[in-house]
User: Which sequence fits this backbone?
């Protein structure tokens, strides 16, 4: 399936590769994590109450719906985190026991 | 008190003008900004390596946006600017802040809170599906990331942002499938007497509607949302369209791959609440707002509010209000203030108040819809609390107001602290108990006002 978002301008920027759930995702410098993930796919995480996918909502740091995690277990708000080269992201919470 | 410490929370139009006024008076305010770059939401900047001109980003407001950005750049040597910094609590008259997992307490002599607003949301079945975003979010995707939320978006809700965002998408080459407005033409006419106090803005809105109509975007008035429809393939779940009712009650379906929703704005008032400012029920917007006088002074000494965080009046009003609050703050600190300037700002804000009245009357929050939402509708999207859960709290559990309902069924308990669900949840409770909305209370704020990272470091003094 295609991503949710469509890029309509500003495509002339350096490419960056990040890793999402072990898979490489190519994005552009200046994109947020939310942009990178929703251009590539249709979800950011699963809601912990019904296990249904969520893809963020407000994009301004208010709704807290867009969180993802680093492989180290740090929580990131995807809408306000810019991508950086080599980022390793997971879309399910890392269990405490693995840290 | 030689150089008092004044903190400005927020760096949108209100915060920027407040900081500028304080700096001009010789103070060095601390300016806290949750964003990476100054501008707030309305004049949010694109990342440094983007190249679209201001006219493309801000349209008719390009001049205001550029002026505000330029003023701020000139201000930087004279203020203590702290981007990506969250003001999350109050302790012993100090403000608690967090920046990159580092916590710091800031003492202050006065504080101007310009915390802005978020979209006002009325949930409907399916609103948690991937592909549904707030109108503000849909605009941020375009403005700050040069992306649209889909290829065939539907915009639903009410208020000026509904048409502005639809128009901006059209201009970006992504034609909206429909604009679905809960306000009827008749209701909008009732707002005209207020809206005509700002004829240029009114004309702009009419132009957006005309452009949309001319290019074949259907604009429907007086609709009732029924549900956002989904499509599901294996693990992929996303929006397929919107089912809605016409003003005459006929069921309609519009296909689309994304939905932007919003019903005007709601003020961010958590810090004023933690500072124990008095609140009063505002019948016009059906929200509880901090009490301020016309200059933005609250019931607490040294605490001032400006911009949409004090009540929704928009960006132009926010600039005047930021300046006015700063002048009042300076006067209260014993600094000389030109009374003529104060009078001038007060006068400038008068038509803004009338305009706000027009907006809330012409594009009202469709509060009555809350009572008709099916029991299974998710209201609190953080914790999937449903309308039925809230009705159970209101009825069998006998919660008299929303904080008790929160304790019983966790509505507003989640990570957004009721920012998205609080108003609708309270409407459902009030309707179920058949009490006026002002008797159903408001969700009390709690620190931290937004989630903090678990690996936090720092020294609390």
Assistant:
């Amino acid at each position: 399936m295609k991503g949710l978002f469509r890029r309509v301008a500003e495509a002339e920027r350096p490419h960056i590769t990040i890793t999402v759930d072990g898979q490489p995702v190519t994005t552009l410098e200046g994109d947020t994590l939310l942009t990178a993930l929703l251009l590539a796919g249709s979800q950011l995480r699963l809601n912990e109450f019904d296990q249904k996918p969520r893809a963020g909502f407000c994009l301004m740091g208010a709704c807290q719906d867009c969180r993802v995690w680093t492989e180290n277990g740090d929580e990131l708000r995807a809408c306000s985190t810019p991508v950086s080269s080599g980022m390793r992201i997971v879309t399910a919470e890392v269990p405490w026991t693995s840290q | 008190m030689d150089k008092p410490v004044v903190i400005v929370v927020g760096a949108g139009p209100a915060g920027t003008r407040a900081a500028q006024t304080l700096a001009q008076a010789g103070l060095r305010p601390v300016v806290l900004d949750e964003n990476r770059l100054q501008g707030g939401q309305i004049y949010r900047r694109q990342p440094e390596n983007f190249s679209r001109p201001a006219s493309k980003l801000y349209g008719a407001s390009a001049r205001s946006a550029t002026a505000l950005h330029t003023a701020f750049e000139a201000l930087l040597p004279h203020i203590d600017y702290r981007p990506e910094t969250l003001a999350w609590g109050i302790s012993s008259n100090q403000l608690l802040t967090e920046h990159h997992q580092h916590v710091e307490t800031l003492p202050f002599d006065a504080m101007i809170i310009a915390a802005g607003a978020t979209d006002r949301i009325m949930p409907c079945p399916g609103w948690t599906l991937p592909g549904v975003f707030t109108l503000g979010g849909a605009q941020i995707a375009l403005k700050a990331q040069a992306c649209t939320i889909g290829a065939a978006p539907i915009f639903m809700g009410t208020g000026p942002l509904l048409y502005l965002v639809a128009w901006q998408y059209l201009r970006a080459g992504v034609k909206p499938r429909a604009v679905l407005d809960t306000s009827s033409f008749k209701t909008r006419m009732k707002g005209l007497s207020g809206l005509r106090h700002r004829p240029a803005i009114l004309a702009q809105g009419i132009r957006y509607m005309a452009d949309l109509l001319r290019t074949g975007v259907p604009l429907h008035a007086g609709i009732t949302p029924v549900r956002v429809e989904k499509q599901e393939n294996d693990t992929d779940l996303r929006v397929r369209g919107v089912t809605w009712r016409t003003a005459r009650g006929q069921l309609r379906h519009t296909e689309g791959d994304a939905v932007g929703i919003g019903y005007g704005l709601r003020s961010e008032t958590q810090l004023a609440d933690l500072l124990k400012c008095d609140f009063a029920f505002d019948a016009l917007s059906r929200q509880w707002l901090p009490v301020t006088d016309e200059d933005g002074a609250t019931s607490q000494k040294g605490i001032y509010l400006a911009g949409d965080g004090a009540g929704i009046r928009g960006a132009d009003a926010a600039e005047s209000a930021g300046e006015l609050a700063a002048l009042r703050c300076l006067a209260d600190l014993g600094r000389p203030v030109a009374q003529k300037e104060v009078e001038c700002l007060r006068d400038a804000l008068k038509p803004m108040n009338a305009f706000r009245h027009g907006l809330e009357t012409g594009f009202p929050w469709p509060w009555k819809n809350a009572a008709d939402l099916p029991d299974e509708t998710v209201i609190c999207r953080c914790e999937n609390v449903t309308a039925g859960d809230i009705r159970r709290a209101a009825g069998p559990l006998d919660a008299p107001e929303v904080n008790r309902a929160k304790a019983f069924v966790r509505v507003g308990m989640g990570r957004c602290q009721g920012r998205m669900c609080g108003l609708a949840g309270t409407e459902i409770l009030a309707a179920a108990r058949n009490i006026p909305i002002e008797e159903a209370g408001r969700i009390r704020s709690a620190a931290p006002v937004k989630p903090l990272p678990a690996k936090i470091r720092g020294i609390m003094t």
